[in-house]
Structures are given as C-alpha cells and as structure tokens.
Amino acid sequence: MKKNELFAVVLMFLATIGTVIGIFAYEKSRAKGYYTVELTARAPLNGNWYPRKFTVPFGQEVRIRIRNIETVSHGFAMPDFNIEPAINEIKAGEVKEIKFLADKKGTFPFFCTVWCSNEHLHMSGEITVE
Amino acid sequence: MSVYRLPFTVYRKIVVGFLFLSSIFFFLSSPSFAAERFFEVKAKKFSYTPNIIKVNKGDKVSIRLISEDVHHGFFVDGYGVKTSAHPGMEGALSFTADKSGRFSFRCSVTCGSLHPYMIGYLYVSPNNLWVWGVFGVLALGLISWLITSKKKQKDEKLKLFGIIPLEWRFPLTKFKPLRALLKSRWFPFLPIVFNLFIFTIILLAGFIGGLGAGNYNFGVMIVWILWWVLLMMFMVPLIGRFWCMMCPFPLIGDWIQRGKLINVGKQKSWGLGKRWPNKLRNLWPLVILFWVSTWFSGFFTVKPFATFILLGAIILIAIIIALFFEKRTFCLFVCPVSGFQGLYANFSLFGVRSRDPEICKKHVPKTCVVGNEKGYGCPWMELPYEMNRNTYCGLCFECLKTCPYDNMDLVLKPFGQDLFAERRRTDDVYNRRSTDEAYKALTMIGIFLSFFLAFQGPYGHLRDMVTAKTFGLHGYLGYLLESFTIDFLLIPGSLFLFAWLSKLASRSKEVKLKDVFVNFSYCLVPVGIAIWGAFSLGIIFPNGSYLLHIISDPFSWGWNLFGTASIPWTPFFTGLMPYLQVLVTLGGMLFALDFGYKFSQRTYKDIGEAKRGWIPILIYLILIHIFFVRIFVG
Ligand code: SF4
Ligand code: SF4
Ligand SMILES: [Cu+2]
Question: I need a labelling partner for B573 at 20 to 30 A (CA). Which of A72, A113, B116, B515 fits?
C-alpha cells in the first residue's frame, strides 16, 4: 500500500518535473560539439536581426539557431559559407537550425531572403570569424 | 408498437410534398454556359478582397493573387490547387470549376497569428449541396410531422426513434476485466498522469512560444485542434465526461484535500472544505464563465502565451478552490469547459448507474456517498445510488470501488436518455432541469455562431474585431456586444417566441411558459452537438496536418523526434468535408425531432395539446436547421 502511494507520487513528479528536465537535457545533448549562436529574426522596423553582429571561433563547427518570433516569414542566407541544410523560408513562429564550418577568417554578411516588410532589404547582419 | 397502413391521404401528401420540393430543386439548378472568368484577389492579414468569388460550373477560372503586406497563399478546398504571392510578386492560378458547391479558399503560407483562419468563399453554382441540404431538412420535418400528426394517444413507453426503449441498459461492467480495471485504484490515475505529461509539454511550449504565431506551437495546436476536436466530436457525445475522467487539472487539489494521491486517505478534506453557496449551485456560473472565456478566443486560440495563461489560470484556480471548498467544487461550478460537457453528457451513450435499487435502499451508510477504505465518497457530490443523469458525474469510478455489493455499473444506454430524466428526489438544489441548463444549451449555439463566422467565415473585419485590432464599437467592444446580443437575447429570444407560440397553439391553460421554454430547450442538445461536430470537421480536415509537424518539433527548436517535422501543411478531405457537415447537421436534427415530440408529450397534458404544441417547435427546428445548412454550405 505504502509502496503504491510512493510509486504514484514518483510517477506524478516524473510526468511534470521529469518531463521538463528531460526536455532541456535532450536539447543540451543536441548542442554538443557545436559552437551555438542564437539568432532572432525580426523585420528591420521591429528590431532587425538580433544580434546583428557576432563572432564565432575559426575552425569550429557552428550551429545557428534562427528563431522567427514574428508573424511573417523570414529567410536566411550567408553566401560565403556552405550552410546546411539550405533553407528558403523560416515561417512565422518557427525555429530553424543551420550548421556550417567556419573555415575562413574575416567578416561576412548574412541577410533575410524573404520579402518580410518594406524595409526587407535592410534586414542584414555581419558574422566575424577569428 | 402495432404496424398500421398509412392512409391514402398520407401518400398523397408525400407525393405532393416531394413534387413541390423537387421542382424547387430543378428551378435552382438550371444549367448555364461555361465562360472564362478572371479575378484579381488582394490578400492582406487576414482577409481577401474580394472575399467571395462566384462562378458557374464549367467556367475556366483564373486568379491573380496580389499581396498587400506579407507572403500569403491561396488554396482552394476541394480542388486542391494553390498559389502564393509576395508583396510585389504576384501569384497566378487557373483551374476549371468542374465541381459545384461552396468551397473555402484559404491562406497556405503562414502569414501571422490568424493565418489558419484566413478564408474566403468560392461559389460554383449550381450549389446542389445547399439545395439538397434544405431538401433534407424539409423532408425530415415533413416525415416527423406525418408521423406525429397520426398519433392517437400519448406514447406509453418512450422509444428512441420508436425502436429502442429509453430504459434499455447494457451493463458493460458485466465483463470481469473491465470491472476489475475500473475498481483498481490505478484507474483513472494512469490516464491522468499521461495527460499531466502532455499538459506539462503544452504549458512549456506555450511559455516558450511566447507571442509568435501559433500554428507551429505544440500548446496551441494540441489544445485547440486535437483536444477541442476530440472533445466535441467523440468524447462528449459518446462517452460524456470522459475528459473529466482523465483531466489533470484537479489532481493537485485532490492531493491536497485527501493527503494521498491514489490510496484512500482522509474522507474529510485537509482544506477548509466549505460548501459552495446554494444560489450558485447550478450551471449559471459555468454559463457565464464559458461565455466570458470566449471573449478571448481571438488570443488563446492563436497565441502560445495566451494558451499558457489560460491553462495556468485554470490550474491555479482549481488549486485555490480545492483549498477552500469541498471536493470537486471547482469542477462542478467553476471550470469553464465543465458546463457544456455536463449538459451534452446527457446525450452520451454511456453512464454510471446503480443496478438494483433494492440493494441500495437497504445499504446504510451509503458508502458511495460517504466513502470507505476502498475509495472516496463521490467527489462530484452526486448520490450515485440514485443518479439518473450524467450532468454531474465525472466518471471517476470511485463509486464502483466503494460499493461493497458491486451494485454500480458502467452501462450503455440509448442516446439522449438522460435528457428525459427527472430527479426523483433531490438532495441538492443543482439536480434539476431549469433555465440554467436551457441557457447553457442556447449560449452554446450562439458561441458556435460567433466562432464559425470569425474563424471559418470569409469576413476579415470579424477577425479584426475578435482579435481586438481596434477597441470601440467597430472593434472589440462591438464583438462583445454582438456576442452578448446573439447569445443571451436573439437565440434565447427566438426559442422563447416559438415556445410562446407553442403554448398558444396547444390551447393549454395550466402549463407554464417557462416550462415550455425549458423543456424544448433540450432539443438543442443534439443540435448543438451536431453543429459543433460539423464545426470541428472544418478545423481538423484543413489543419490537422500541423499536428504531424508539432509532435516532432514541439518547441520549435528544430527537433525532429518522429521524422515528421518537415511535413508541409496538407489539407485533406476538403472536398468531402461539406457533405459530411450537412450529414452531421441533419443527424442532429433527426435526434432533435425525435426528442422534441417526446418533450411536447411531457410538457402538455393530453395528446391533442401535445400535437398542437409541437407544430411551432417543429417549424422552429426546420428554420434553424435551414439556417445551419446555410452556414455550412449555402
Ligand atoms: S470539470 Fe474541468 S477541471 Fe474538472 S475534470 Fe472536467 S475538465 Fe477537468
Ligand atoms: S457518480 Fe460520483 S463517484 Fe460515481 S463515477 Fe460519477 S462522479 Fe464518480
Ligand atoms: Cu495569409
């Protein structure tokens, strides 16, 4: 009887706190071996790329997670690198991940590829590899 | 029931009726010549201009799509063709309109929070389905009238469609494994824990998803597409409060009150265990609360964070109420989704009932009420031993556990039987048929109307109103006023009018108008279930495919748990959908007609009054069903 009760309580905590811990642990394990950058996509008048400029270490595998927190589609292109997978659209509310090898030093542009607002052409940023 | 031949006059009536109806049909469906039609459609968040396009069958239709703000799409239900347009970059589409009827065209590119509801209508005439739908409604009405007008005396035994006696029961718990399952303390605890797990993910996704668009959010999609549709289409109409059986919201409250999660602890609450005030022991608080929560439908059905707030608030309030009040006071009188579940549960096929009343009579103290070491006294404050309606039974199965004689069963019973049940003896004020239940039935119809028009209709300005783009009379305030007028004045008013006509027609002296109103309002239970079912079809067929995406990537973190994250939006069965919607609506009407005449018999003293009093209600049912068919396909 006592054992049943204990088991039930454990189950309840597993279903709640356990789930949350599990989710974050899984997310963490996916990030292993990569240099991760969080990038937020917004149309220029709403805040533009955030951060607009960032630095990644040379020779590293870099993972950029692009979070579109708006209600329109955006895109992402960085012509100087071979990004994987190629994406043409990041829909509203969606998050996409791209990976690339930072094998060139210097500063390179990245920009949005979807007509997201009248200011679309200003939606660009810079990545520095050093 | 004795078989008797229909008299000749009846045949004549049927023939004349059908000739009349079919002449309307041919008149309306006269053929026309094919032509080339061209439309320029402007798309902006969240509507199209023109929002209604009319062509004839056989026309070659070309559409040029122009976007005025962001990337929008254009998908035609039933035809499955689509295009999309960026600002400054048009989309083009052409097809031959070879299927007739009304088709929604909808946005196929996520363009914002209300994107799944960005809709316009394409009419390809002749709209046969609409004509057939009306034909069906009239035919059902005619048949009902023919059958009822021939009655010579009141039915001795009420039978569903004249076939299945309403008191028919089949105890499912005859099957030993099922009884053992229901008597186990692990049931329904395990399903509850499973839902606790799902709702933990929903809350987390709602929190993380923030204010982004909801169609890639686990919380928004599971709650408003999967849960709502399952609830409205399967759980409530078939099994009653099946959801309440496995609902995780009251779990913490139960734990606090009992001091034990699954074992049997104290029967008396650890909380204050106060009694809910008598005045509020009815469905009124639920009618109002559910209506108030629909004010925010434009937010929490589309914004992840709003879903988080709503669910979080429900869970918190459930805990607080459990601390102050006894047992499941929250579920009985506060939970916003409890009201329609309770009322519509009366339609369901299943119920918990005691088998042999003699055993119950002799059993003191009644353990199903006070509890024993096997389980708790009914947490929903029912009197299980004499319960005859599902409204306030949460299917927690405690009474199956506490009954020492195995006298409680889970039974199968005819649809809608509980709608006729009257409490023989009421221990508690909430156990009776009254205006609160009538208003619950009526407001559910009104809420259906506002939801349908805003979320499945072609009216962009309504969507702007619901999402409070502007406040004021032409904005949000206008929406609230409109919903109040429809839900509390127009729809109840229309039933009231016909109830008054019914009383007038019956020439009854003694019957009270309020009783006529309340009794006939129960006709609207099957009607409400049917139209909400048809509404749900309009959600799940076009937008069900989002579910495949979000189970693989619940937090929009780029996960791909089941390999389905990249499945694009794929509407299915959109061609079949309107036919199903009409069928479901007609199905609801079939039950309403059958129940309606029975209500008439119980309202009025003799057969003459009952037959005369039934006519206005029959007309009312015909009218509202023509209206509903129009809403869905006309
Ligand atoms: S009434 Fe509400 S909170 Fe209670 S079990 Fe049912 S759905 Fe859950
Ligand atoms: S009657 Fe009460 S104890 Fe029995 S299943 Fe229903 S809610 Fe539970
Ligand atoms: Cu759109």
Answer: A72
In a domain, B3, yes or no: no
Cβ of B335 closer than 6 Å to ligand 1, yes or no, is: yes
Which tens digits make up the pLDDT trace of B427-439?
565 657 778 888 8
Strand bridging mode B408-412 / B170-171: antiparallel
B244 touches ligand 1 (CB under 6 Å):
yes
Length of chain A (residues): 130
Q: Is B468 on the interface with A (CB under 8 A)?
A: no
Distances (CA, A) of B208 to B217, B304, B426, B486, B555: 9, 8, 48, 36, 7
Q: Do B193 and A12 touch (CB under 8 A)?
A: yes
Summarize pLDDT for B309-329 with one digit per residue, the tens. Answer: 888 999 999 999 988 888 898
- Of A9, A27, A94, Cβ closest to residue B261: A9
**3-state SS string over B91-137?**
EEEEEECCCCEEEEEECCCCCCCCHHHCEEEEEEECCHHHHHHHHHH
Look up the pTM and report it: 0.86
CB contact, 8 Å: A4 with chain B? yes
Judge if B438 and B328 occupy the same domain.
no
Among the atoms of ligand 1, which is closest to the Cα of residue B245?
5
Q: Which residues of A touch B193 (CB under 8 A)?
A: 11-12, 15
Distance from CA of A24 to the nearest CA of B (A): 11
Range of the domain at A1: 1-32
- Specify the ligand 1 atom closest to the Cα of B247: 8
pLDDT in tens, B97-130: 888 888 888 888 877 777 888 888 988 888 888 8
* B478 part of a folded domain: yes
What band does B528 get if pLDDT is binned at 50, 70 and 90? Answer: very high
| Shared domain check, B530 and B396 | no
Question: Touching check for A116 and chain B: CB below 8 Å?
Answer: yes
**ipTM higher than 0.90?**
no
